[in-house]
Amino acid sequence: MKKGILLPLAVLLAVCFLWDRAVLLSRSDIFPTPYQVLLGIVELIQHGLLLKYVVASLFRVSVGFVLAVLIGVPVGLLLGWFKPAFLALNPLIQLLRPISPIAWIPIAILWFKVDDRAPIFLIFLSSLFPITVATIAAVQNIQPVYVRAAQNFGVTRVDLFRRVIFPACLPQIITSLRISLGIAWLVVVAAEMIAVNSGLGYLIIDARNAGKRYDLVVAGMLMIGLIGLILDLLVRSLERFEQVRWGYSQRG
Amino acid sequence: MVSAPVISVRDLGLTFPGKKGAEPIDVLRSINLEITTGEFVCIVGPSGCGKTTFLNIVTGFLRQSTGEVLVQGAPVKGPDPRRIFVFQENGVFPWLTVEQNIAFGIARCPSKEQREIVRRYVRMVGLTGFEKAYPRELSGGMRQRVEIARALAPDPEIIYMDEPFGALDFITRLKMRADLTRIWEKEKKTILFVTHDIEESVQLADRVVVLSPRPGSVRKQVKIDLPRPRDLDSPEYLELRDEIFHTIGMSLRVGAGEEMSAIFP
Ligand SMILES: Nc1ncnc2c1ncn2[C@@H]1O[C@H](COP(=O)(O)OP(=O)(O)OP(=O)(O)O)[C@@H](O)[C@H]1O
Ligand SMILES: [Mg+2]
After folding, report:
1. What does the alpha-carbon distance between residue A18 and residue B32 come to, in Å, rounded to a whole number?
2. What digits encode the pLDDT tens for the residues B38-64?
3. B163-204 pLDDT, tens per residue?
4. In B, which residues are within 8 Å of A157 by CB distance?
């Protein structure tokens, strides 16, 4: 247990040390040392900006992501089950899916101006496709024996979805949530650099534009990394529930 | 026995349309069979002779090409909760606990009655203490017993079983056979049990139906009139067993002289 923490910690310290040396050796007066970044973080906290921007970013990601889950999972379940609907809609989905959410930024600004709805829309789009596509695939690959057993017991169609198809697909759905939340977190930063004037993405671009404050740029980057890590751990903890553990191969 | 047949199969045949260009596959050909209420019937036959296909038709998961199947007086239209299928590949739901699995088919009962039924069948299949366990925490034999309990819980009149013990080791299989016999004597269900294990069929059944290699048809029916629990060393048992082996052996010799073990694992 102790070894599991000590080694990464040592690597982290070593990286900070090398970073510090490199900045000193290059005599750069723009690129910050780790200590200056730390001071930057403290400054952001003192001005109340850090909390404000973190909340702004998290708010956008949560709303966009939750909307994508609420629509993507049911749509995926239905498209996975009803073949004609799948055949009708799948080409459209496959056409829209490869379009990077970033490419939607101009349209998002056109529709929503510079306010919260633009990044929320982009997050929604970026999560919707991975979730829908993964749910469709999960339904299509469900073990037929589960469906047959349920039908044998005379369940209604609604119950078939609620009691069998959904729980049978849940492990794969959760995996897709993990992937799409990761993407959403990448996208929100990019969207905030362009489409709004708050949030961690805005912090980074603003710190650079308004006075080359690279200590704040790197501070913002570290925050993005840290929160992304926490989000991933949160979704990953869903995989531990007994109702879905069967769906993941024996690891850990 | 004087009771009317609960299952009657007349001139049943099934042909799968072949994949593009390929010949259609004749899987079953003119099967005739009658099963009376409460009877324990085993169907044996070599792998690939159409046993699973036959059960799927009788259950209503699959439509026959020719002939008819009457179950409880009516042609089969589809799966029905009065007749439960125990699958060859284990069909226990991995996202439910043992007791939730067993309760799956009785969701409409009042919860007090449900608990009562679940407790009864948990005890009957010997899983007391594992009510809250998930299938991945159970052994293969225990999982199979969950499926049997789940099938029994809604009190069906007929149980179809497709090689339910096929994936188990020898000792567990012996134990499961004894358990199933005990449960059957107590519950008085009609059981149609498919296996490719001749010993198993003679240990379990009132009657063994031997199918020929594909296209499957009834090659012979052997009545097993031995008292239970069965003495596996008695000359009567051995004689019946050998008779069935012989029937299969003859059918193999008619084939292209393949290795017996290759066709009949
Ligand atoms: N959906 C299908 N389409 C085409 N052919 C099929 C299909 N299902 C089964 N068959 C063929 O029908 C034959 C009988 O299959 P079935 O599963 O009924 O055999 P079985 O007697 O249960 O064998 P086993 O003992 O190995 O379980 C096989 O030769 C198989 O190739
Ligand atoms: Mg089979």
Report:
1. 84
2. 999 999 998 889 999 999 999 999 999
3. 998 888 888 888 889 989 998 998 889 999 999 889 999 999
4. none
Q: Which ipTM did the prediction report?
A: 0.86
Gap between the Cα atoms of B73 and B4, Å rounded: 9
Comparing CB atoms, the residue among A149, A153, A246 nearest residue B95 is A246
CA dihedral A114, A102, A203, A29 (to 10 degrees): -140
Which residue in B90, B96, B154 is closest to A153 by CB distance? B154
First-to-last alpha carbon distance for chain A, in angstroms, is 14
pTM of the model: 0.87
Per the structure block, which two tokens stand in for B241?
């067993």
Residue B231 DSSP SS3: coil
**Chain B residue with Cα closest to A245:** B95
> Contact B58/B69 with Cβ under 8 angstroms?
yes
Q: How far apart are CA A75 and CA A68, in angstroms?
A: 10
Shortest alpha-carbon distance between residue A247 and chain B (Å): 8
Q: Please give the Cα distance from B57 to B69 (Å, whole number).
A: 8
Closest residue (by CA) to atom 1 of ligand 1? Answer: B16
For residue B91, pLDDT beyond 50? yes
Angular region, B21: left φ>0, alpha ψ -120 to 50, beta rest: left
Hey, what domains does chain B have and what are their CATH numbers? Answer: 1-79+159-165+189-265 (3.40.50.300), 83-156 (no CATH)
DSSP string, chain A: -HHHHHHHHHHHHHHHHHHHHHHHHHT-SSSPPHHHHHHHHHHHHHTTHHHHHHHHHHHHHHHHHHHHHHHHHHHHHHHHH-HHHHHHHHHHHHHHTTS-GGGGHHHHHHHH-SSTHHHHHHHHHHHHHHHHHHHHHHHHTS-HHHHHHHHHTT--HHHIIIIIIHHHHHHHHHHHHHHHHHHHHHHHHHHHHHS-S-SHHHHHHHHHHTT--HHHHHHHHHHHHHHHHHHHHHHHHHTTSHHHHTTS-S--
Say what percent of chain B tops pLDDT 90: 63
Pocket of ligand 1 (CB under 6 A): B 16, 25, 27, 47-53, 88, 196, 214
**Residue extents of the structural domains in chain A:** 1-31, 33-251
Q: Which CATH class is domain A33-251?
A: mainly alpha
